[in-house]
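4.2 Preliminary Data

To establish feasibility before requesting continued support, the project team ran the inverse folding procedure on a target of 126 residues. The structure was first converted into the token representation described in Section 3, and no sequence information of any kind was made available to the design step. The complete token record follows.
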């Protein structure tokens, strides 16, 4: 089973950018679809973006489309979330998750992901 660890969170002003990284160890990374989720205080965890095993297919939540981009480097066992034009409502703990999938599939439901990181805090000030 793969383990994942997020990094790259922090405090940024509205309109700024951050890149989150998620490093995977302990498994065959290229067999896993990957996803980013977030949870703000008092709110449920929500899907942000997902990517298929090869990186050929991606999906974004409507709230981040045009601003966030998910990508992966299977040679480095790492998935990224580039976040541009950040807004205060993007403030949340961001989680990376992994799920064994078939090629081409992008998963957006949290319950389908079996391996989760501890999360990294992203705070956007107005």
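Position-by-position output of the design step:
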């Amino acid at each position: 089973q793969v383990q994942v660890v997020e990094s790259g969170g922090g405090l940024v002003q509205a309109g700024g950018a951050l890149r989150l990284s998620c490093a995977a160890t302990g498994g065959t990374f290229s067999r896993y679809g990957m996803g980013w989720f977030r949870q703000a205080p008092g709110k449920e965890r929500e899907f942000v973006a997902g990517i298929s095993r090869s990186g050929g297919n991606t999906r974004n939540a409507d709230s981040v489309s045009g601003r966030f981009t998910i990508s992966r480097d299977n040679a480095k066992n790492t998935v990224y979330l580039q976040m541009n034009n950040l807004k205060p409502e993007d403030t949340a703990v961001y989680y990376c998750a992994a799920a064994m999938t078939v090629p081409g599939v992008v998963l957006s439901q949290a319950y389908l992901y079996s391996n989760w990181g501890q999360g990294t805090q992203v705070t956007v000030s107005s």
